[in-house]
Amino acid sequence: LPSIKTFFLSFRVNLKKHSKHLMNFSENTPRVPELNMEKHRQVQLDIEHVIPFFSSAVERLLQGLMLFPVPCINLYFCMPTTKTRNSFEQSEDDLAEKMRSNEILQRAIDTYGKVVDMSNPTADLVKLAIRRQANRQQFLGHIKRSVMTLKKLVSLYPDDFSIKNELGVSYLLMGDNNNAKKVYEEVLAIAPNDGFAKVHYGFILKATNQIAESIPYLKEGLMSGDPGTDDGRFYFHLGDALQRVGDQDAYTWYELGHKRGHFASVWQRSLYNVNGLKAQPWWTAKEIGYTDLVKALERNWKLIRDEGLAVMDKERGFFLPEDENLREKGEWGQFTTWQQGRRIDNSCKQVPKTCALLERFPESTGCKRGQIKYSIMQPGTHVWPHTGPTNCRLRMHLGLVIPKQGCRIRCANDTREWKEGKVIIFDDSFEHEVWQDADSYRLIFIVDVWHPELTAQQRRTLSPI
Questions:
Q1: Residues in CB range of 74: below 8 A, 6 or more apart
Q2: Hey, which residues does 430 pair with through a beta bridge?
Q3: Which of 384, 410, 439, 443 would bridge 401 by S-S if both were Cys, CB 3.0 to 4.6 A apart?
Q4: Which residues neighbour 3 within 8 Å (Cβ) at sequence distance 6 or greater?
Q5: How far is CA 246 from CA 193, 209, 211, 234, in A?
Q6: CA 305/CA 307 separation, integer angstroms
């Protein structure tokens, strides 16, 4: 152990020496390293030089802890304490983050997995290491591997329902709601008051449109206060479920979600946000600043309309039904030309002039958290109150074919109507709702744009939605 201590001290000094050159990987505050390429390569070589020693030291430490066990004061002391655990067991893991290296992270994952094969490891140590292994596999996108890892852990400790809870999450990440549901049913059969299992089970029920059935599980899970339950998604889905059954108690839960810091306000309930952006339900062209885009859309609205109508006349199914379970009733179809900042070439072949017009406006075509699409809604359609996923975009609606009366949209507590050839702009991270009670279809063109207060750096680095 003294040699390992010496190694970590030297590594810490080496890392500190070059820390000012390392990139800050915080998602919200990226910073570009201020060094030339030659110095960057030298830093890379210096750190890579110590990696083999670093890895072998970790393995020797793990083996040494098993050969010379220390009495456990708490769960983390077996590694042995929180501070030294972070220094030793997660050393490769932390280095992978510093280096932003999947290769080093994979080595860390392998190291976690070796704990099971050691001579008489403690249960706490095995659970800690294998859970971290599954977590890091999820981080790399290896969801199936994380499922297998956690299933192995469940087989070792079948009475520990907290591991089953984590297995259920892995199934959800994989999109396997059926197996996730089975896991949480098993947990609730053993521990009927487990809040974590309840909120996740309620989440699954709501996802399968069992709205009324989902409410007690979501509500009781949140009220339990158990670790892992205080999550904006569960407040979001409980409130949404309550709204759909006509229960105004929804806004009580939205208010609580706001107080807990999950929502910007009762009305603005998006979950993937950048803090500090101006927030209001409705915007004007002057406020948003993209006046050239608004003028171009309004000047060319008939061209955009005619190309959209031509696509509607074709019998090739370009307009696809809305598939996010947002409709209470009716028919609502969409024809998308840009998605997450990427042009859909097959769609643009059908409306070439419209796409050529939009290419001049990167604030829209480059909006990785938005779409550009036609939207057709038939009479008798009602869209539930809902919110978009992010506050990073604003949404323009250009009226193309608008019946004289019966079509309206509410955003927050302000209801408006579309007009042919005119653009209305709103922030869809606020609650909005749509009614189509006319006697003929309504056709609009939807153009999402970056929120004007986002910096160029943020627009480049924000993940797509």
A1: none
A2: 268
A3: 443
A4: 57
A5: 27, 15, 11, 18
A6: 6
CB 200 within 8 A of CB 172: yes
Which pLDDT does position 300 carry in this prediction?
98
Report whether 203 contacts 234 (CB < 8 A).
Answer: yes
- Per run of 10 residues, the mean pLDDT along the chain (length 465 residues) is 41 41 35 42 48 52 43 33 40 59 78 84 91 90 94 95 96 95 97 98 97 98 97 97 97 98 97 97 97 98 97 85 94 97 97 98 98 98 98 98 97 98 98 98 98 97 96
CA distance 38 to 83: 35
Q: Across the strands, what pairs with 282?
A: 426
Residues with Cβ within 8 Å of residue 277, at least 6 apart in sequence: 391, 392, 451, 453, 454
The answer to whether 384 and 434 have CB atoms below 8 angstroms apart is no
The Cα–Cα gap between 33 and 80 comes to 35
For residue 219, how many other CB atoms are within 10 A of its CB? 19
Question: Are the C-beta atoms of 53 and 81 separated by less than 8 Å?
Answer: no
How far apart, in whole angstroms, are the C-alpha atoms of residue 200 and residue 190?
Answer: 16
Give the side-chain half-sphere CA count within 13 A for 172. Answer: 20
At 403, list the tokens. Answer: 């019946």
HEC secondary structure over the chain: CHHHHHHHHHHHHHHHHHHHHCCCCCCCCCCCCCCCHHHHHHHHHHHHHHHHHHHHHHHHHHHHHHHCCCCCCCHHHHCCCHHHHHHHCCHHHHHHHHHCCHHHHHHHHHHHHHHHHCCCCCHHHHHHHHHHHHHHHHHCCCHHHHHHHHHHHHHHCCCCHHHHHHHHHHHHHCCCHHHHHHHHHHHHHHCCCCHHHHHHHHHHHHHCCCHHHHHHHHHHHHHHCCCCCCCHHHHHHHHHHHHHCCCCCHHHHHHHHHHCCCCCCCCECCCECCCCCCCCCEECHHHHCCHHHHHHHHHCHHHHHHHHHHHHHCCCCCCEECCCCCEEECCEEEEEEEECCEECHHHHCCCHHHHHHHCCCHHHHCCCCCEEEEEEECCCEEEEEECCCECCEEEEEEEEECCCCCEEEEECCEEECCCECCEEEECCCECEEEEECCCCCEEEEEEEEECCCCCHHHHHHCCCC
Dihedral sign for Cα 81, 86, 87, 88, please.
Answer: positive
Q: What's this model's pTM, rounded to 2 decimal places?
A: 0.78
- Contact yes or no for 158/190 (Cβ under 8 A): no
One-letter amino acid at 49 equals H
